[in-house]
Amino acid sequence: MAKLWGGRFSKNTDAFAEGFHSSISFDSRLYKEDITGSIAHAKMLGKQGIIEAHEAEKIVQGLEGILADIEAGKVHFSPHDEDIHMNIERLLIDRIGDAGKRLHTGRSRNDQVALDFRMYMKKENTAVIREIANLIQVLLQIARENLDTIIPAYTHLQKAQPSTLAHYMMAYAQMFSRDIERFQAAYGHADSMPLGSGALCTTTYPLDREYVAQQLGFHEITPNSLDAVSDRDFALEFLSAASICMMHLSRFCEEMILWSSGEFAFVSMDDAFSTGSSIMPQKKNPDMAELIRGKTGRVYGSLMTLLTVMKGLPLAYNKDMQEDKECTFDAADTLLSCLKVFTGMIRTAVFKKENLYATAGKGFTNATDAADYLVKKGMPFRDAHAVLGRIVVYCEGKGQGISDLTLEELKEFSDVFEEDVYENVSLEACVSKRTLPGGPARESVLAHIHSLEKFLSGLD
Ligand code: ARG
For labelling alongside 70, which of 51, 64, 278, 419 has CA 20 to 30 A away? Predict the structure, then answer.
């Protein structure tokens, strides 16, 4: 069977080389975008009188039939026709004859693949944004239920100051809300319609690009044809947003892995999201969290793949760019499944409030507040810091906390201490006095919850 582009060729493609350059094994997933794009193109050709109206009609019907057959599993694609674009064109010509040969008028696979990929990535961005929004909803719910659940907060993985589980969850919720904004931006750059760019320098047919853009739900048309056929920024932006989102998931997973260890014992993962050991009967492992952490590397790899593919390419289209799809599809699939699993895992996790509270009370997490107490009574902060440093060393020697010391003992370090020190350095006080915007006090966290609720409701 001759190639659709075979006119100037006198030999068949080498059999191994054919398999090597064919992309149908992975770009077949663009079938719907390809057919929808071709239908819009055919309608436009008919409307503009570039092909006869009845031919346009025949093409549209033929393409609709092919779409239905693909979805019913009745179509077999072949590497002989290289990619999804030529497989579908071949099917169309086989089915409707000469009218089918007019579909590719004023079009190249270069602008066609750019169109299909952009349409597909708009869909993936939307799906990812929906999954992240679901995850944020779960985090907001955990936060609402834990406004007063005191936890130890860390810097350098050393206990630092008390916070609340709500404040902690909202930190991740904020990170994920930025991810949504990044995917919205990636969507925005994909939302530009490239058809009409032709192979690279447009075409002489009087195409109506705006009409095609409207039919396909694009918000604008690409303004330069050389750029339009060689631009994969929208995929790079998706991969970059995906990498950052995976990094956020990975950090969260890392903490849940630590927190579920016997040493921390702050959380217990539901059995439905844990696995056992084939030899050690006692084991319950946080495999889901570990796997998400691991898959982060794979998504970063996809970003590096495409950045590297693109870095030396002269304008305009080059076949190298066919390497844009597998890595991007794999990253999108990976991210979507990680988001789904993570959301289920965190929604069903049980936080051990007593351990969180008990641990928050250790490690002198109220030392800053004890120093601030002295400052509020007039002592310069540096002096107060030094006083507390000495108190901490003394407490370490006795195996006690700051508020376990008697007032007499405290007065040995500074006579500024009075009876009211105790109520000022309790864990509850440390949290409830941090009412600044962004802080862990109930009202501050509630304000943050409300602002993210508003952000989410603005998405639909
Ligand atoms: N399969 C190709 C790709 O994914 C489609 C465009 C091919 N264009 C060409 N002139 N070879 O990039």
Answer: 51
Q: What pLDDT digit, counting tens, does each position of 305-323 carry? A: 999 999 999 999 999 999 9
Residue closest by Cα to atom 1 of ligand 1: 83
Active-site residue flag, 277? yes
25, 78, 261, 277: the catalytic one is 277
Cα 35 versus chain centre, distance: 28
Topology at the third CATH level for domain 359-443 = Ribonucleotide Reductase Protein R1; domain 1 (1.10.40)
Q: State how far the Cα of 151 lies from the Cα of 53, in Å rounded to an integer.
A: 70
| 450 classed as catalytic | no
- The ipTM estimated for the assembled molecules is 0.97
Buried (b) or exposed (e) across 195-231, using 16+ Cβ within 10 A? bbbbebebbeeebbbeebbebbebeebbeebebbbbb
Question: Is 322 near ligand 1, meaning CB less than 6 Å away?
Answer: yes
Atom of ligand 1 nearest to the CA of 82: 1
Q: Which CATH number fits domain 110-357: 3.30.465.10, 1.20.200.10, 1.10.150.290, 3.20.190.10?
A: 1.20.200.10
The model carries a pTM of 0.96
Cβ(89) – ligand 1 distance below 6 Å: no
Per-residue model confidence (pLDDT) at position 94: 98
